[in-house]
Amino acid sequence: MSGYFKEIIDGTHSLVAGMGVTIKYMVKPVVTMQYPRASVKMTARYRGHIDLVKDAETGESLCIVCGMCQKACPSGCISVAGEKPEGAKKKVLTSYRLDFTKCSLCGLCVESCKPGAITFSKDYNLAGLTKDEFIFDLKKRLEER
Amino acid sequence: MNPEVSRLLIYVVAAIAFVALNAAMLVWMERKVAGHMQGRIGPKEVGPFGLLQSFADGIKLMTKQLIVPEGADVPLFKVAPMLVMIPAVMCFVTIPFSETVAARNINVGLLLLFAIASVNILALLLGGWASNNKYAVISAARAVSQNVAYEIPMLITAITVVMFTRTMNLHDIVMQQAGGFWNWNILPFTKNPAMALVMPISFLIFFTCSMAETNRAPFDLGEAESELVAGFHTEYAGMGFGLFFLGEYANVFIGCSLAVILFLGGWQCPFGLAPGIHWFLIKVYSLIFVVMWARWTFPRTTIYGLLNLSWKILIPISLFNLVLTGALIKVF
Fold first, then answer.
1. How far, in Å, are A123, A137, A142, B111 from residue A76 at the CA level?
2. Which of A43, A82, B34, B149 has the maximal Cβ count within 10 Å?
3. Out of A8, A22, A32, whose CB is closest to B313?
4. Is residue B293 less than 8 Å (CB to CB) from chain A?
5. Alpha-carbon span B254 to B251, nearest angstrom
6. What residues of A are in contact with residue B298 (Cβ under 8 Å)?
7. Closest by alpha carbon to B218, among B296, B329, B114?
């Protein structure tokens, strides 16, 4: 018989304790991010698709068109092209295309790049209706930035 | 026009409008309460603070096709959602919103309210049975056993209140509680101080039972989504489902308003100032908030736990409560 009343009292107490927890959470600030209106800042180690690094002084790419990234890529999704303008000492990048449909984000291209001209972007809003939308012209992206 | 006829028409239109508006607002409130308890915001896109969300949902439900499943008992299948709504609207006859706002002042109002409200469960049974769906049938059987179990302690506690107030007229019950909160039936210090020990227990039992009667979580065994799809309204599409929903929220309102009338002084102000319909609505919606608070706190009970709670705990305690009330009224 004492167990009967103990169960009722313990049960009631645990119900009240549970309601205390939820009411505390109700007055706490909201923790969800209202995504299209606001978005989180991506962490430093986030691996998006690769992107060219901008030289802070010239505003151009750091790329020397050595083609190491193109060779390192196991999926063959990078194609780099460059030319040597008349009288210049170094090659200049003319096009840098990334076929993101094949890329597995392994990062070998970033590791192989001696001048540090490519890095992972923080872009995660990737959606498209056609395959062609995922073939990125990274030089154009760099110029737009 | 004959004043009796116009009174009737105004009442019916107002009651149906109130039921629909009440359901829309309660759905919004429920989603907001649930959201904030889970660290979210809840609806916010449609209208200011998402207030128009349930109206948008209502329009969506009304434009949907009503599908009658194969092998269903068509007349019963179609009549069940209406049978949910009709008693819910009829219950508003007896509820006095304030001293002047009431459809009818009936001297057996409490009895009539219980009589009408118990039709609701038949509608759930019909809807579940007519759907020709095994989940719906299981759910209907559960809902009936649950309602039978919880109607008993609810009625017994209602009897303790009637013994104390000596009337079944809801208007008179509220009028007796005029003054301040020390006159309310939940803690009747001025009328019979000994009863202040018994009445809070009566209130708790009554409130728990009204939660179970309206099939609200944690007693929503009838529509246990994890095991019974959606329970008795599994096969209902569009506004058929919508009517079950409207009926549920109307019943929540009726259950809470009955608790307010019997125990918390109806439209009387806690401090004896400016009694009126606003106090009634404030109290009812606060109680509804508690119902939602419980829903988003507790997990669903098992069917055994549910019936054990009623037969082994609530019924013995309410019977003891009844005897004690009789003794206290006689002695003091």
1. 21, 15, 21, 81
2. B149
3. A8
4. yes
5. 5
6. 15, 18
7. B296
Tell me which residue of B257, B233, B234 sits closest to B246, measured CA to CA: B233
A8, A22, A34 ranked by CB distance to B297: nearest: A22
B39:A19 CB<8 A: no
Q: Cβ of A31 under 8 Å from any chain B Cβ?
A: yes
d(CA B150, CA B201): 16
Nearest-Cα distance to chain A for B85, in Å, is 31
| pLDDT tens digits, one per residue of B295-312 | 888 888 888 888 888 888
Instruction: Give the pTM.
Output: 0.81
